[in-house]
Specification:
The protein has eleven helices and 18 strands. About 5% of the residues have low confidence. It has a ten-stranded mixed β-sheet with strand order 2-1-17-4-5-13-9-8-7-11, with helices on one face. A three-stranded antiparallel β-sheet has the order 3-18-14. The protein is globular, with a radius of gyration of 19 Å. With about 325 residues, it is α+β, with helices and mostly antiparallel strands.
Length: about 325
């Protein structure tokens, strides 16, 4: 099987870099056209039991120096950790590590700004079919993604825009709040545990709509809010993610708490933690309320980068690697 390179743009340098895709050949085979229509096989592969088994085999055994070096080569920086790196004895402890984000991931004091919820690789797009960056059908059905039959939020985001943040195994795996506002809904949607490797995303139609996920709806048009209307934050599990722990902390990681409807959340603070694996966060915005950062859009259209995400006809869709709490968009009425 010939494997296609997957590259992304490093935001800080503007340079392309090739991604090391963990278990790429296996995942590509598992999600190939020949196997993806086998209902029994796919049900076992994406089940909670299989996910738990993989997580134990991969994350609860003692970590080796070779593994640590491999993660460092992929981009992990253990000098950022809140506790000494020597205390990270297993892959689980590495995956769930805390960092000094208040020092190393500074946030601009700008009330109109939306920030990245994670150290991740991002693609932005539009739900409006006639938009120049209409990407909806490449990754998900947003109506299915929200998955809340008793209180359908999809109408609020029709013709809106989105950002997809893909976390890879070496990343810091706390999610942070991208906006400030009041939580008006919070719920879990049952689903599978498919891989978030690009090959799996391409091989499984509406991949992000199929997986287990947690949805948080934030009203930002409130006193102290970001002022960009309703924002949906969807945290999506992956092949070795069995759980998303809500751990909202206004001050560093102190006194983590669950989320509740009616609760005010600050921007840029820890919200939740993905348990071991790689995973994805999707943000949905209402029509006309936000303006994405120019570099994220221009990077996406670059033709000098090999990406497995494509619009067809040789047009790649290129991700940008960025840091949690860095700017991704602002209110649409703010001058450029």
């Amino acid at each position: 099987m010939k494997m296609v390179t997957h590259q992304y743009i490093v935001r800080d340098t503007g340079q392309p870099r090739s991604e090391f895709l963990v278990g790429d050949r296996i995942i590509s085979a598992l999600y190939s056209t020949e196997l993806k229509y086998s209902n029994l096989f796919h049900s076992v592969l994406s089940s909670a039991q299989f996910t738990a088994f993989l997580a134990f085999m991969n994350f609860d055994c003692p970590v080796t120096r070779t593994t640590v070096k491999s993660l460092e080569l992929m981009g992990a920086d253990f000098s950022e950790c809140l506790e000494p790196a020597d205390n990270l004895k297993t892959m689980r402890s590495i995956f769930e590590r805390k960092i000094r984000y208040w020092e190393l991931r500074p946030i601009l004091e700008n009330d109109a700004m939306i920030v990245s919820p994670a150290d991740s690789r991002v693609v932005v797009g539009s739900l409006e079919q006639h938009s120049m960056f209409f990407l909806k059908k490449k990754f998900f059905s947003f109506e299915e993604l929200l998955g809340c039959p008793w209180n359908d939020w999809s109408g609020y985001f029709e013709k809106g825009s989105f950002a997809i943040f893909r976390l890879t195994p070496e990343k810091y795996h706390y999610n942070h709040t991208p906006v400030a506002g009041i939580i008006v809904d919070f719920y879990e949607v049952a689903g599978k545990y498919n891989s978030c490797n690009p090959s799996a995303t391409i091989g499984l139609v509406d991949a992000y709509s199929k997986n287990k996920r947690v949805v948080t709806i934030i009203d930002t048009d409130v006193p102290g809010g970001t002022g960009v209307g309703l924002v949906a934050m969807i945290e999506i599990v992956a092949l070795m993610i069995g759980k998303i722990d809500q751990a909202y902390s206004e001050v560093r990681y102190q006194e983590p708490s669950d989320l509740a409807i009616g609760m005010y959340v600050k921007k840029g603070v820890p919200k939740s933690l993905f348990r071991p694996g790689s995973s994805t966060v999707v943000l949905l915005f209402q029509h006309g309320r936000v303006k994405f950062a120019a570099d994220l859009i221009s990077n996406q259209e670059r033709m000098d980068v090999d990406s497995r995400f494509s619009l067809g006809f040789g047009r790649p869709v290129v991700e940008t690697d960025l840091k949690v709490r860095s700017s991704i968009a602002c209110r649409s009425n703010v001058p450029a």
